[in-house]
Every structure is written in structure tokens, then in C-alpha cells.
Recover the amino acids of this structure.
């Protein structure tokens, strides 16, 4: 199971030191949410599953260059992940079954040769799914997304 933590122990120690030495007057931080992701319909357990979560409609489903995106890589043999520390808002998930574990999606004439999927199992028409079709709300609690892999070739 993959997991991402938003605050490391070094940050916590620094915050503790600062709060002892000087009073801090700030707004309380927004509570974080969690998403539980399960991947279904994998055609094999070879390779990895690359998961990208984003709030940026323009960068979806390719999260490269999206500073706010969260990425997780899990083995295809254990197709579940739990991502914590997500800010409340509208998110979408894009998933690739990277069967050869080269860290990217392989294509032929622009058509994925490896499995793809997205949150809410958004439809794939003449191109990738739209953010509006894949998006869902994350609040301060836990949300589950079951994503069905699709293989086009």
C-alpha cells in the first residue's frame, strides 16, 4: 500500500522550537483529507501503477509541471493506495499501469499500449478523460475511489 505524508519530523521539530521561542498568531491550517484508491481490472501484476492526483483541470491527466499534484507509485501486485494530507477541494486521479516499469506510458500512434484509468471511471472518448468527468470532492474525511483499468491496445 502506498502512502504519502504531508509533514516530516524535521518540520514538526522546527514548528515546536518556533512556538516555544515566540508566540505565533496565525489562522488554523485547513484540515486535510484522505483518499483510498483501489485499482481493478489489471491484466497482469507486472510492473507498477502510476497514480497522479491533481486539482488542476489544465494539467489533467498529465500532471507533469503541476506543482500541486501528488504522485504515488505502487506495485501492480498490490493495487491499493492511501494518500493522506490532501487539501479540501475538487480533485481528479489519473492512473497508468506501467507494465514494463519504465516510469511512463508507452503509446503507438498516440494510443496507450498500457492500461489507463481515472477517478469516477470517466469515459475515454477521442482522447483522455475530461477533468470535469473525473473530478470528485475531498473534504476533511476519507473518500474512496475504485478505478477500473482500460486497455486500448
Amino acid at each position: 500500500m502506498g502512502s504519502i505524508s504531508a509533514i516530516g519530523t524535521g518540520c514538526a521539530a522546527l514548528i515546536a522550537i518556533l512556538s516555544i521561542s515566540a508566540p505565533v498568531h496565525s489562522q488554523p491550517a485547513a484540515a486535510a483529507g484522505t483518499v483510498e484508491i483501489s485499482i481493478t481490472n489489471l491484466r497482469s501484476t507486472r510492473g507498477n501503477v502510476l497514480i497522479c492526483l491533481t486539482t488542476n483541470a489544465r494539467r489533467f491527466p498529465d500532471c507533469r509541471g503541476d506543482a500541486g499534484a501528488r504522485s504515488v507509485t505502487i506495485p501492480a501486485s498490490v493495487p491499493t493506495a492511501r494518500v493522506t494530507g490532501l487539501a479540501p477541494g475538487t480533485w481528479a486521479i489519473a492512473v497508468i499501469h506501467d507494465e514494463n516499469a519504465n516510469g511512463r506510458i508507452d503509446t503507438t500512434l498516440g494510443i496507450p499500449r498500457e492500461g489507463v484509468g481515472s477517478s469516477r471511471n470517466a469515459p475515454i472518448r477521442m482522447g483522455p478523460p475530461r477533468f470535469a468527468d473525473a473530478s470528485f470532492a475531498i473534504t476533511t474525511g476519507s473518500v474512496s475511489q475504485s478505478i477500473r483499468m482500460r486497455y486500448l491496445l
